[in-house]
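Supplementary Note 2. Why include the ligand at all?

Several targets in our set were suspected to adopt different conformations when bound, so apo predictions alone were not considered sufficient. For every target with a known small-molecule partner we therefore ran a joint prediction. The input for DI6 is given below.
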Amino acid sequence: MRCDRLWRNARLATLAPAMPGLGVVERGAVASLEGRIAWVGPEADAPAFEARQTLDCEGRWITPGLIDPHTHLVFGGDRAHEFELRLAGASYEEIARAGGGIVSTMAATRAATEDELIAQALPRLDALLAEGVTTVEVKSGYGLSLADEGKSLRAARRLGEVRPVTVTATFLGAHALPPEFKGDPDGYIDLVCREMIPAVAAEGLADAIDAFCEGIGFTPAQTRRVFDAATAHGLPVKLHAEQLSNLHGAALAAEFGALSADHLEHLDEAGIEAMARAGTVATLLPGAYYFVRETRPPPIASLRAAGVPLALATDCNPGTSPLTSLLLTMNMGATLFRLTVDECLAGVTREAARALGRLRDTGTLEAGKACDLAIWDIERPAELVYRMGFNPLHTRVWRGL
Ligand code: DI6
Ligand code: FE
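The joint prediction is reproduced in token form.
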């Protein structure tokens, strides 16, 4: 049987849903052909391969390539000065209401060219790739005008052209109210729904539509309008929900069959049940929880009991989660939210793929999927969650290369 590359003498954490736990294969092999996984399983059961290249993994662990399902990687400037204000006692919400926060990043994003946005995002993206990330979701949401949201999404798409990584782009025009619409949020939502979403859909700039349903963001009624426009243009939805308060955004997202509802610190039982019924993934963002010094974690035990899929993401953004380490995100998921090691690893692979609607293509080591691998110098998978600030990646493989 012909294959391009054969990785042998490896321990596999396949994350295959049909297998228990991490789907471990102790002495396994993976074969690639034209960028896809052609075969995976116990080496003793492997067909007689004629591989163009055979690699002895010397007993190293192979996981699916990591997936970051929630980032705001494309933005101008930074908010280090606000960090100092917060250290002096100002709250995230106070800064936002005073015109700082997202709106201050909006000015820097509007001032930047598409090329400058790419140049500023690449170091953040490269930090993720260095830890074995092979798929990353990138949101807009700092342009807040038709031209600047389009510029941001084109920059996001181009990140996937200048680096060996799969990028999914999410339109987040309903992230904050731009100054020119001060006092007129419904007027801005008109612009989002009647001009931005049609233009984004027509140009194929986004794979999903997101919104910030929050007191300092948009109301459930405004969010519903965004979701109606997304649905009318055939785009799936996601939502920043229940981050600072309970506006029942998760239940609204579930009503639209959302791919995911994200943050969820203030999620209630009704929201959990709605997500479970809809199959909406709970994307947990412990970096933001940590950075804004939140004290109320998402209801993990209730989400787990209801069978809601759990994903993890960096939420890399300049205001609440300037984090570019998915490995540290896993440690935070375990340390702050009490997720298990298996839940953390599934949260940045299989469940992260599910949160992006891409489980058919990636997120597990199964034949037919993209050959996206991360090969690790570890003795046991728990090391990937346990350590803080240590990167044991040996090799990253994207589409078999
Ligand atoms: N919630 C968040 O934590 C980020 N966006 C959102 O909807 C914050 C984005 C920022 O402060 O720049
Ligand atoms: Fe976010």
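The two ends are 19 Å apart (CA to CA). The pocket of fe (iii) ion (ligand 2) is lined by residues 70, 72, 240, 315, 317 (CB under 6 Å). Comparable summaries for the other entries are listed in the accompanying table.
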